[in-house]
Amino acid sequence: MPQQLTPLKIHAPAVEEVLDDARGLSIATVERDTGLSKDTLRMWERRYGFPSPLRNATGERLYPAEQVHKLQLLRRLMMQGHRPGRIVALPREQLEAMAPRAPAPPAPAAAAGSSLEHWLSLLRGHDAERLRRELQQAQIRLGLERFVAELVAPLTTAVGESWMRGQLQVFEEHLYSETMHRVLRGAIAALGAAESPARERPRVLLTTMAQEPHGLGLLMAEAMMSLEGCHCVSLGVQTPVADMLLAVTAHHADVLALSFSAQPARAQVRDTLSALRAALPARVEIWAGGSSPALSRPPAGVQVLRSLQSLPRRVAEWRTEHGLA
Hints:
The chain is an alpha/beta fold. It has 13 helices and seven strands. The strands form two sheets. The chain has a five-stranded parallel β-sheet, sandwiched between helices. A two-stranded antiparallel ribbon has the order 1-2. The radius of gyration is 21 Å and the shape is globular.
């Protein structure tokens, strides 16, 4: 019999958090598209008078497109070091003028002799089919491991930094993410069968927390672990804690692997990891990776993997610890 899991209280989202409208977007959609939490949006509304959402017939917040665009600019400038109290009240035109002047971080090193600017140019050119085709060709040429470590990882960083500098629009970032998902999913599906039943372990369940909409890091981790013969089950992104616990039991998982970007608040990351560690059986390991600052001081019992390249080593260690090497 599987060990009983500690029950958690689950709260249904408020209506305003899930409904969009022809006149504007819901607060949940705005949180997802801007990276600003619902609490931040409400606090700014009270403190600064912006955003100033409309209300529908039942009083739920609706954010017009022009306000969402300004919120995206504010988020970008905050990630470049600007304080919200100094910029929230500024007009959108002034925010747009400020963004290019922010110092640009150093560009990641080119991968496998390919210029990252080539891929960014394809993305800005909106040639989705050529982008997909050339990425697939690069994956075949490099092999899946090198493709993930040497191209996908630095290119994903470059795409994020280009968005912060205002050099890519949100829809272009989304196009990149969807195209890369297609390429990586196809590559993972094409992998051969595991060598033996022992090589199919650990059984790894992969997902992200409810406040984490970014899934490329998760998919890169799945690719690396699939190459090591792990049995991987991905739930995709934004899975509530209670559902993670149910899925761990349903899939007899040995490991729960979570990916975190810098978007969710540190407290949310730590609270999620602490709740999972307290509720899961001791035999189920929690592996966490990504760019969240909260991972510099993880809760006890959570293993942080600092890079994609560390995954094969951790899989080998797990098998040795469980007599499967």
